Amino acid sequence: MSSKTKSKKPKKPHPTHVEKGTEIAHPDGFKIAVSIVQACFLLSLTVLATNLLESCISPVYGSLAAHQYHDRLIISAILVAGLTHRWWNGSSRSWAQVLAVLLLSVPSAVFYLVRFSGTLGPRLGPLITGLVSTVPVTLISAIAACKRRGLRNSNVSSSNVNRQWTSYEIITNLAFLASITRHWFSDLLQQWMREYISNSNLISYYLLALFQAFLFPSNYLLFAALPVLHTVFYTAHIPSSYADRLLNATLHDHGYSLVARQESVTGYISVLDNVKDGFRVMRCDHSLLGGEWHPPPGKKSGLREPVYAIFVMLEAVRLVESAVGPPAAVDDKGQENALVIGLGIGTTPSALIAHGISTTILEIDPVVHDFAT
Q: Which of 26, 241, 286, 372 sees the fewest Cβ atoms within 10 Å?
């Protein structure tokens, strides 16, 4: 054997934590930041749209019943998307295109389920409606957000531990974002759209859905044409003379007639006449604000009789006498004063004013004030 030893060439270092042939592309910080912003925008847009659609069913089940499952359904859909987004094929853009089609199609299914509200009831009805509307769109939106390139490839390792940790991070951040969007920004957006664009929650919803379709156009949007046409021509939630006639055709079968309606800050305000028994009521979503009987033909009445006797009893507050000193409701000139918080249909303040009491009314909903006066 030769005494000379061959010099060994130094081995090239391999990338740490990455097996040969499985190296993962690591985007830089700017690309990750852009992907995070895009994912947040995509999910926020969907959460805002589901809130608007939820407001459309409040007149059916009431605002409390319509809201009782909404948060849990959104968080559950995000949880499922965060844990399973690696199982689904397709890019973030393709899932966003599917989301655009679904957002345009969901109202048609929701308003079909509303027909069975009497059978489903206030507990099962909102739950099934949410499973049909809120869960699918939130799930697809969260999958599209998770598949953004910066989030998908931001793992520092291909090990299962790091992949699982990244999924939990995505779930936590998206759930936190959805909660902030729903409870902080949703009301502000609805108020802004109601003031500058439309009073209708359904029209605002479709504007957001069309914006999503504009950002992610595809030929699949043709499948949403029929559901959109069905919603426009066969539901009464879009304010128009045609929708009013459609709504009255249904109300007449139950002995009612629509006088006026408008969506406002406290909900869906409507005024209805009972043509059979002869009274008029004002409703906010699923609650009755009050009503009054129509006077018999040929009889004039200064103050009409309310359908709820309690409103007449509230007038008795003017008979209260102070045990010590003059009544606090009397000013220096001897004028009695009253403060009424909540106008309703105006029964109590009208009675106080009729007795010469200077009455101040505080009402936060301008539509309630317009309809009552």
A: 241
